[in-house]
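Lecture 7 notes: from sequence to structure.
We start with the chain below.
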Amino acid sequence: MCAIITLSSIKGGSLTEKPKVFLDTNVINNISPTGGLLGCCKQLECLDSKVDFIIPSIVVEELIEHKRKAFDRKKQQLLDNELFDNPEERAKIETKDFCEECIFKDESIKYTTEGISNLEKRFHDMCSLALQNKAPFDNKTDKGFKDAIIAFTIDDYLERNPKINRVFLVSKDGRLGEYFEERQDVIVIKEFSELNQYLDICNDASQSSQANDECRAICHEDKPSPKLSEARKLLTELRNSGNFASTHQTIEKIQPYITLLTDDDFIDILLSAIENDQVMWIIDDPDVKGFIQPIFDKYKDRLEISKYNDFVNKSRWQYPIKQVLSEANLDDLPF
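Predicted C-alpha cells for the same chain:
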C-alpha cells in the first residue's frame, strides 16, 4: 500500500491549467490480460488534449491487480486445457510471468497519480466514517475502504492546491458520489459524455466541424442506452430488496435486459446476493436459483476469494471452499 502516500508521479505528461479530472477504477478498468493499463481509450484520447487526468494511486494499484488476475486466469485456462499437450509449449507457458512494466510501456494516455500526504490523520477520519456508516462507506456495512482512499486523495489534493477551485471525478459508485454531493469544488459524473455539459469540450473553435462531430460521437460512446440505465436501476433494487416478494419481482424484471448487462453488472448481481440476506434466504427458490446459479458458475472465479467463500457458505450450494494462503500455511506448500 506504500504507493498510496506518493503525492504525485507523472505518466507521460505534467499538470497544466486545464480542468482536472479524477478517474475511478469502474470507468477505466481494462481486465484484458494484454495491452495497456487503461480501458475506455477512445474516450480518454478524445479528452486527452483538453483536460488533465489524475488517477489516485490506489486505483492504479487496483488496475494492475485486475490485469494480474486476468493474466493468471488465462494462463491457468491454457494449462488446464487437455488438448494443449505440447510439452515445449506448456513449459513456455508455465515459466511465463506477469509483466507489470509491460502494461505501462505503450500507454498513450497522459495522466498523473496522486496519493495522501498525511495517511495517519486521514486513516483516523476514515475509521470515524466507517463506524458511522457514512459515505463513502456502505450505509449498512463498513465496505468502502478503497472509495474512502479515493475521496481523501481528492480532499488532500485540493488542500495542497488552493488555487484549484474545482475538479471533476468520473465514477459510477453511488456512495462515493454521495460523499461529495454537498460540495461545490468536486463535480461527480458517471460518464465521460457528461463532461461536455460543463466544459463544452466538443465545440473547439480551432477544430473543424467534422472534428467536433467526431469528438461528440466518441465521447458519447460510454453513455448507456435508456434500456441499460433501466437495467442498472433494477440491479440497485435487487441490492436493496427488503423482502422476498420484491426480490422475486426484481429478478423477473431484470430478465429481459440480460443481454445488455456487462461482466461488471453480473459480478454486481453476485455481490448483491452476498450482501442481501433477503436474496440468500430464498436462494434455492427455483426462479432465484435459475437466475443466479448460471451467473455464479460463469463469474465465480472473478470474485475475491473471501467473497466467493461468503457466497458458498451463505448459499450452502455444493461448491468447494477456497483456501486463503497465509504465513501460517506457507510451510505446507510443496516447494
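Points to note: The beta strands are 8-11, 20-23, 52-56, 111-114, 167-170, 186-189. Residues 42 and 218 are 7 Å apart (CA to CA).
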